[in-house]
Structures are given as structure tokens and as C-alpha cells.
User: Fold this.
Amino acid sequence: MTIRYEGIATQSLRRSPRGEDICKVISASLNAADAGNAVKRHILRDAEWLITNRQNVDLTKFKRVFVVGAGKASVPMAHAIYAILGDRITSGLIITKDGYLDSVKYPTDTRLIVIEASHPIPDQRNLDAAALLVIMTSDLHRDDLVIFLLSGGGSSLLTNPLPGISMQDLQTTTTLLLRSGASISVINTVRKHLDALKGGGFAKILYPATVLSLILSDVVGDNLDVIASGPTVGDPTTFDDAWAILEKYQILDHIPPPILSYISAGITGSNPETVKPGDPILSEVSNIIVGNNFDAAMCAADTAKQLGFHTRLLTTSLQGEAFQMGKILSAEAKALLFSPTNMSRPACLIAGGETTVTIKGPGMGGRNQELALGAVRNLSGTEPWILASLATDGGDGPTDAAGAVATHDTYSRGLALGLDPHDYLLRNDSYHYFDPLGDLIKTGPTLTNVNDLVFMFGV
Assistant:
């Protein structure tokens, strides 16, 4: 899906003399993460051979080829695979987030079922879709090939709770974890121990078929066991780890009793652990990363250089509390431009990763909007600064915005409207701070997901 740079513009970017170029840098990063193109870059077909950067697959060995998957990017990924394999595909089923279908750009093949479901909190549609997926893949043989397409959002979309755990139990637990400020790695450690498909569980169902998992990474470090909770990957974490997380984030007393009972039984050995690395059922599984945050950040950096910006990639491992990272990144940008070994203007600094928000107030927003809000006070002054932070999937928290833009005059503009950034941070209400300023970034669903990107421009 092509993201046009005009669609990135906010009020502050439209006012900036370099606003159009800044929009081009940001849109370039999103287009570099195009999920369909990512698949095509890593998978080629030569007659009856499927060629990857990991292995060559002889298609003549397989009677049937199934395409299954889950995630925000699963539709363009499936579209690419169907274009590559054509009539060799027997059938397929993918699960994507509401609003991420785009049947106009990606018309559905008659051999492919596409189901839209809920994210980030699963509902009955998620369970029904996962049950249908299990039925489709429950009678596989050694002469079957399964191409599994996985991307961010898969943890929620691919939901099949273990015995004794209800959908409501999962909804409550997921909500508590998402509000706790825990990282996605920590959250998925718990989720892997409550679901039959996570933590290598889907590999159990697919065995003994050959499995080629094509993965668009949305986690810092590209840890395979963390991405969508690792359905086809061995899980190094344990029930003890899951219990310790609930204690650490002080939500143990609020977790539904059936979930506590299940984890307790797992600790004592009464419930089976997740699939562990080295398990024989993983022997026929190949997991291949086809795209990540680094790819998107590097494309942005190249575009910025071409447009005349002095450019530096700071990190693609950004983590921590969002508003604190906003303060730190804005301070770092100033230090780089005003130090003895300073960068020349115009400058572009890029950071990628995934921050967290500990929700304490009743407001509305997402981690990217909160990061930008955390930077507002630091950026205030006469020097022209622009910070843009956005989720590459186009959805930042439970809002219609991908992120937000803060500049050197956001603070003063906000005060003129009676907006105090400190008050909005206390309420976790970043959306309603940036909305009256016209500085919410709204791309709509991008049909990809490679974490978040933060851009700081000295213009």
C-alpha cells in the first residue's frame, strides 16, 4: 500500500518551509515497510523451486500447499504469496485487524478466506477464526507445505485459549497488561502461557508438515519468540516467569481466578509447558524475517540525505516510558546540534523501537502521541524544531491517529488555547492535546507494522 506524503501533513508541517520534505521522509519509511514488497524481496519462484534466503524448497515434493496467517500486514503478504505461487496453492485463511482488509487494492482470491477480527483486545470473532484455522490445518502430512504469514497484531488476532480459560478472562488480563506499562516481550510471556497457539503451539498443530514462516517483525530486537507470541517458535519462558510478571506489575490481585489457577498448575507441572527450543516438532519449521524497523529507518535516512538533511540514525532499540523518551530524545537532539561537534542544519535524527505507557488517567492517546507530548516543553523556544512520532501500522493506541507532531512553538500555541502539556500527561490525554492544534498524524491503516519511528528535524 503506497502512503502518499501529502497524507502525512499536519498543521505544523504545512506551516514549515521544510514540511513537504519532512512528509516525504516519513512516507518513505512507511512505504519501505510495505509488507507485500517485503515478501517479494525474500521469496522467489523458479519453476518448481521456491527460493528463500534460508533454503530452497522443492515444490514437487508437496501434494498440497496451504497459506495461513495472522496480523495487520497479512492481507498484502498473502496477496504477494498468491502472486508468486499461483495455482500451486490449495487453499488459505488469514486473520487481520478490522479495517485492514482493503479488498479494492488486494482483491481476495477464491482460494483464500480473509477474516477481520478485534485488536488489541480479542473478541468472539478472534476465537471463531482461530478455531476455523485449527480445523483447516488439523490433518496435515509430511507431503504438505504450509506458508505461515505473521505480523504485528498476531497475538490478539490468533487467539485460542487453553482449557478452563474464557474469552472474558483473556480480555481482562490483556487489558491489565496493556495498561501496566509492560513491554510487549513481557506481555507476550504471559499470553504464551494462556493460549494453545502461542509459544510454539501452532507448530504442534502443523506437524509433520513442512512450515515456512514469513515474519514481519514489530518487536525490538526481532526476537522470533516474541513476535505475535511466537506461534511457530520455541519459547524460552516459563509459567514461573508469567507469575513473576503479574507480581512485578502489581496486577496479580486483579487477574481472573481461572488464569491464576492455570498458571499455578503450570508451575507445579500439572499443566504442560509451552514448546521449548530444540523440540523435534520444530525440525521442519523455518522462520524468516522479511522486514523490520531497521529497514524502514534506513530508507527514511537515505531519503533525508537525498533531500539535503544531515542525517543520523540514533537507534532502532528505543524502549521505555513514552513521555520520558520524548524528553530524552528532544534533549539529545539539542545536544547534537549545539555541541562542539555539532551536526549542521538542516538535520534529521531518527529513532525506532517501541515505548510503553503506564496508564494512570482516563484520557485518550497512544505511546507515540504521549512521546510527542513529553517533548513539548523541551522543544519550546525560538530554534525551529520538529519532532514527529508515529506507529508504522497507522494506529497509535485506541485512536484514529498514527502519532503526533510537536515543534518549538507547540508549547506556546497550546497555552494560547488553554492547553497545559503537564495536565494532559497526568491524564494520559495526548490525543486531546494535539487535536485542537491540528497536529495529529492520520494515515489510516497502512497494512504494515514494523514498530514505531521518531523523527527529529532541526530546520
The chain has a mean pLDDT of 95. The two ends are 30 Å apart (CA to CA). The CA atoms of residues 394 and 444 lie 5 Å apart.
